[in-house]
Design brief:
It is a single chain. This protein is of the alpha+beta class. The protein has 2 domains: 351 residues, Kinesin, CATH 3.40.850; 103 residues. The protein contains 10 helices and 20 strands. Strands 2, 6, 7, 8, 9, 12, 15, 16, 17, 18 and 20 form an 11-stranded mixed sheet that branches. α2 runs parallel beside α4. The longest helix has 100 residues. It is elongated, with a radius of gyration of 44 Å. 33% of the residues are buried. This is Kinesin family protein, putative. InterPro entries: Kinesin-like_fam, Kinesin_motor_dom, Kinesin_motor_dom_sf, P-loop_NTPase. Belongs to the TRAFAC class myosin-kinesin ATPase superfamily. Kinesin family.
Length: 463
């Protein structure tokens, strides 16, 4: 198994002039404060600061005139070609404050208030990445499955699910083979551009959006598209087995970081949860950047960091596109974003290609084996069914016998009770007869005695 040492690749993009919200909030007036310097650097001029100008170095820097397609061609496409198609999982993640052009970078023009047929499948990193994979499919025999979720207020929603009732808060599980995953998450097979365009449109339509002071169409949730690939490769393998690359591509559009006082009500709660999850992400990046393997990495502090565990410290290469706005009134947020991205650049890890073996010597034989196994299973199930029916009949007969015996015992007991009652009645009658006889005898003796006394008295009188 091939492995590579991999650093986070970090790029910075200044909000492009083609972004719909560029000519709002005075962006065009402030462009002079941020410029692209030599050797892929960002020069930040702070005329009112005692610290002077700041310089930040990155792997690539793109100014406001750079189109998304150029970014894809120069940085994303080579990564996909060299890493993803060779079995290495890849994450592409956009980070920045609200209104800095993150969703525009990932998806192109905003999908709000547009019909599906009106959307051109071009312009965003997501669309161009998928186009690249689909175009490579005939050459590399690629199979792809897609899932799409959002994390909103620390709850996970499946954006491809049609069942809203069971889709409010998906669970997260983790095992050695699958890593971190949501078992209820729907996966769609991808065969062409039209299919994935439809799924992306469906997901974006369900995604939580809202108007804030900083962006009229602001993404209020973290969105993660996952493509699970299966790439057939001609590699040496055991007879009867075929080797496949099985990398994953994570496309992550983070919600914007912002100050809490900029929002009120529901937006305040959303902002609080967004900042909390981004803080957890920052803590993980800080610890990983230190390179101390003994330190605990708090992936479980938020749903976002749990789902991005493989992207941050696991077996996946990572590209971060940090989006910044040229508006000077947001210079503090811009500096925070640049520092955040600079720390991520220090993360180093070793990644391995994802390979699985599939037995394919004879598909027809496999099908016959499957049918034979299915028939054997059906036979065993039928035998078990007959056995259970036989057991049920035996139990029924035993129960009947038991009930019959119980009924006989009850009848015998009833008969015995009746006989005892009759016997007691006879005894009682005999007893009464004896008593009556004794009483009559006593009475008779009494009368005899009285008569005798009378005769004696009468005799005395005569004398």
């Amino acid at each position: 198994m091939t492995s590579q040492n991999s650093n986070f690749c970090v790029c910075v993009r200044i909000k492009p002039t083609t972004c719909p919200s560029f000519y709002t909030n005075g962006h065009q007036e402030d462009c002079k404060y941020i410029s692209v310097g030599p050797q892929q650097s960002i020069l930040l001029m702070q005329p009112n600061s005692t610290c002077g100008n700041k310089v930040f170095m990155y792997d690539r820097v793109f100014d406001s005139q750079t189109k998304t397609l150029q970014i894809f061609q120069e940085i994303v496409k080579p990564i996909l070609n060299e890493s993803l198609l060779n079995g290495f999982s890849q994450t592409i993640l956009v980070y920045g404050m609200t209104g800095s052009g993150k969703t525009y970078t990932m998806f192109g023009n905003n999908f709000e208030n547009k019909k599906e047929e009106e959307i051109a499948f071009e312009g965003g990193v997501v669309q161009e990445s998928v186009r690249f994979i689909i175009e490579k499919s005939p050459e590399n025999k690629i199979k792809a499955k897609m899932s799409y979720l959002e994390i909103y207020n620390e709850q996970i929603r499946d954006l491809l699910s049609q069942n809203e009732q069971s889709n409010n808060n998906l669970n997260i599980l983790e095992d050695l083979q699958k890593g971190v995953y949501c078992p209820q998450l729907i996966e769609k097979d991808i065969h062409n551009l039209q299919e994935i365009q439809s799924y992306i449109f469906q997901g974006n339509k369900k995604r939580t959006m809202a108007s804030t002071k900083m962006n009229e169409f602001s993404s209020r949730s973290h969105a993660i598209i996952q493509l699970q690939l299966e790439i057939e490769k001609d590699m040496s393998s055991n007879k009867g087995f075929k080797n496949y690359f099985s990398p994953k591509l994570y496309l992550v559009d983070l919600a914007g970081s912002e100050k809490a006082f900029e929002n009120k009500g529901n937006r305040l709660k959303e902002g609080s949860n967004i900042n909390k999850s981004l803080l957890s992400l920052g803590n993980c990046i800080n610890i990983l950047a230190e390179g101390n393997k003994k330190l605990h990495i708090p992936y479980r502090d938020s749903k976002l960091t749990r789902l991005l565990k493989e992207s941050l410290g696991g077996n996946a290469k990572t590209l971060i596109i940090a989006c910044i706005t040229p508006a000077f009134k947001y210079i503090e947020e811009t500096i925070n974003t640049l520092k955040y991205a600079q720390r991520a650049k220090n993360i180093k890890k070793e990644v391995y290609e994802n390979i699985k073996q599939i037995y394919e010597e004879n598909i027809q034989v496999q099908q016959q084996q499957f049918l034979a196994e299915q028939q054997e299973i059906n036979k065993k199930l039928f035998e078990q069914f007959l056995y259970l029916k036989e057991q049920e009949q035996e139990n029924f007969e035993l129960q009947n016998e038991k009930n019959k015996k119980q009924q006989e015992e009850e009848e015998l007991e009833k008969k015995t009770k009746k006989n005892n009652q009759q016997k007691n009645k006879i005894i009682h009658m005999k007893k009464n007869n004896i008593i009556n006889l004794i009483i009559r005898r006593i009475i008779n003796r009494k009368w005899i005695f009285i008569n005798k006394i009378k005769r004696i008295n009468k005799h005395k009188i005569i004398q």
